[in-house]
Predict the 3D structure of the following.
Amino acid sequence: MSSPSLNSIFGYLSSLTRHDRRRLYQQPSTALAIFRRMLPHLAKAFVMALLYMPQSLPVENLDRWVQQNSREEKEKAQGLLQLMDMVSITKDEKTQKNTIRLANPFVTSLRRALAGGGDHRSFGVPSNKQDPSVTEKTLDDFARTQWDSIMYFVVGSVESGASSGDSIALGLRSLLDRGGFVRPRGKTAIITQDGFEFLLRDINTQIWSLLIVYLKDSVTRSQDNIEILSFLFTLGSLEVGKGYTTENLTESQRATLEDLHDLGIVYKHPTVETRFYPTRLATTLNSDSNTVTSSLGGTLALAGGASTDSKGFIIVETNYRIYAYTNDDLRIAILSLFTSLRTRWPNMIIGKLTKDSIQGAIRSGITAQQIISYLTAHAHPIMASNRSDQAPTGQPSLPPTVVDQIRLWQIEGDRMKVTSGYLFKDFASEQQYSAVVEKARLVGVLVWNDDKRRQCFITRYEQIQSMLKNGGD
């Protein structure tokens, strides 16, 4: 659950009502996609063990499936399954013990997805007619062009305003504005802190960041967000290069196709309304890795800040000098956000990390950790010799003096980190307070607590709600 894209999807799914989540699980393709993408390994193991059990299982039996030192991971996995309405926990009338089982419709849809059968057609319906002119290369070129336009618009807004956005649709410009990635200033657009965050992420996270904004805004377009989200998960399971019919799609899903075309996720022929082609960008929707980069190459393989598929190109010296082996304009533009560029050669850029360049980026919203993460993710393999004690063997690492200095330059600005959550106080007893704090710590939602004043601050309360109602039992 550490991936930024996973966190954004999880946050959106957990914000849905129980009714909406159950609607979502009615499609086998959606149930399978969420099972594969959303759940940690231990939660997946629980689901597979419970999938074909004819009766409910005592909750205490789950403890026997894990080692004693894995109790925290077990609590997190169980809490996540409950939060996502994938399991149902009830009390057995005879034994008076809590039992657990997979909940409908999730269990029914997952069984259908794994075993096949039925006429749900949730994995897409191939078109009877295929256009031989639409090849995988055609789709890759289209996806790269569309996505590059978005990236150049966001990066170009740093210096040239919205002039670089002439090549992207008005709907996309509006989407970037509503998502807080850029903000309008007269006829120009200025990048925001979230915009910097967007630029430094991998493509998978970037796509889902835009799609989450699109889903949240679906109400204003009179569209069904559950139908759209289900369609997005379906797209992730389709085959690149094959055409699919739109006849089985709902009205909201057909309308979404036009916007997904602008994003480069699907390709629609201008004269054929009943057929669409998923691009390689669509394959990232159900993937936790940046697998698209190795196939698309180009800018898509380098724009993100966490890609492991593209070769590193940045060398950082202890004197803060940077050598970037690239001639790509987008890479250079991203580096210029926090680097003072000095010299450009046909295949290399020379620059320097200075106090002014770093603090200028910080004033615009970028953080020191974002800069460090980007430089580390794109460090040249030769920098593996600088590996720190905390970095895995063979992984490139920045010089410690550079990392420390970047952080010190940020500290000078006295930046604060804001965490959204809930403050709990006035507990009925010490026992209730201790039980709630321990549970919150186990499921990973505890941020702060004060034993003397019996107060705690947590990011989510759903997983401890029942404990509060029962007085800490």
Observations:
- The chain is about 45% helix and 10% strand.
